[in-house]
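Deliverable D4.2, example record:
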Amino acid sequence: MVRRPSETSGAKDEPDLPPNIFVIGLLHDLKQGGYSWRAWGAFWRASWIRSAQIFQMSDELRRSWLRFLALGVPGIVLVALGVFRAFGLNDAIWFLVTSLVWWGVLMFDLALHLGLMVNLESGELQPSLGWPNRLTELRGLAAVTDLADGWLARRRHASTRWGRLYDPFMDGLFFTVAEISLAVIGILPQWLAALVTVRYAFPIVGGITYLLIRRRTLKVRHTAWGRASSAGIALTVFAAAAATSLGLPFGTIAPVLYGLVAITAAGAFITILMKGIEQV
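Output generated by the structure prediction step:
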């Protein structure tokens, strides 16, 4: 959806996600190649060349990425110093190394997908990453930015293709790891961790399957059930972690939170299926 200059929108409006013609073309070539190793090689080679071209296309966007990359390193070091004071040298080293490696992975992936920094309202490539996208990327390290990034994107009319695709992905990455970690140490039940994993893996696997079979990009949109599901999972994760660290009883409210997660996850599953069927 591209707005006319005279049109206005509220903070709650969410622009449509237009089809990605480049990806659709690659998917058609992939099918014509019979999904062979050679066809897959051509697919990834063309994707890499396109990413490199866009990385070199906009000096402003590239400098914005470099600044974000550089600012993340001292931030991680400062947190590592806090870990050192609280837990000792060994834990601080592990935290520093793993965080720097993960930050490098996130930034490399972001560099490859700078071409998705297209404003969904104007259709133009943005000159910078923008705070909504920065907050989404930071959620690969923490979840406190979950509400802020979406609100800012709608408020500033700065929704991008990258943000629309990566926002739910980062949600799934963080909450799945958190649920599994809490289940491993016995704070949350294993069935809940499995449910959350399936909850976030289902749309990703379904979306990839849709891309390969239909050779069309999905019209990804946030839904009320999806937001409610993520909110319920976040509440459960933080409540369980806080109760354990403070020595408070979690068992009294646990059944209510587990039920909330299960009900909203079921609603999200049904909504995803209905939205998917509409696009088939």
